[in-house]
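Data availability (excerpt). All sequences and predicted token strings are deposited with the supplementary files. A representative entry, Glutamate binding protein, is shown inline so that the format can be inspected without opening the archive.
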Amino acid sequence: MRRALRVVFVALAAITALALAGCTSSGQTGTAQSSVLTKVLTSKKITVGVFADAPPYGVMNSSGDYEGFDIDKARALADSLGARVEFVSATNASRIPMLETGKADVIIAALTNLDERAQVVALTRPYASEGQLVVVPTDSPIRSYDDLAGRTVASTRGSVPATILEAEFPQAKPSLFEAVADSIQALRSGKVDALMESTAVVAGVRASQGDAVRVLDAPPLAPSFVSFGIKMGDQLWLNYLNNFIMNYNISKAAEESYNSWLGMDVPALIK
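Structure token line:
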């Protein structure tokens, strides 16, 4: 009887080994050996795609250092891994290609949780929440969303505002820029009538422009969550990032970052 049981156990072990080998050879990612998590822990370096010209999410200051709301998250993530962080500048349009080509281990650059994005990249649990607002010069006749008809409205390529303008404001005239800083400058210089951007970016615009601009008194458009993005298929890396965000969002560091850059506490819905 014992010999028969031993034969059965050996057979089952062999079948299991073959099944695991089949999974590995099929090209699936996310095993301990192939995971970005293992690479980062081994190399002690993490490459993070961030904005360099989109306050308050991320900017490069005059000293050549990155700073901002997302930069705080990236540095905290690197610290949690005992790794050195290497920043790579991203734009709205380049964020997903950077993941697909392996130029970044993770994107932390105001990546909104759109369903179509979740079809091509893996998105973590939210680390922030936001909506889209419209900013105009203080003396502008634009008072409501309806007034955007026939007006030139700035936003950035590949962004949520660009999608909103196309889908919900067909009578407006979108003026799309590669970088958030360019769209802000277009509003400042009078090249456009209005700017549509996220609540966080608008907070930065209001802080820098003061009484020269005002935000339309209307509900935010497309309320949404914001997540880290990684390449599809790496479940181990995704699990770690979700765990990091869960712990970070209830930390003192998160409260300080939110208050410093956005002027508010961490929203309860993402804790």
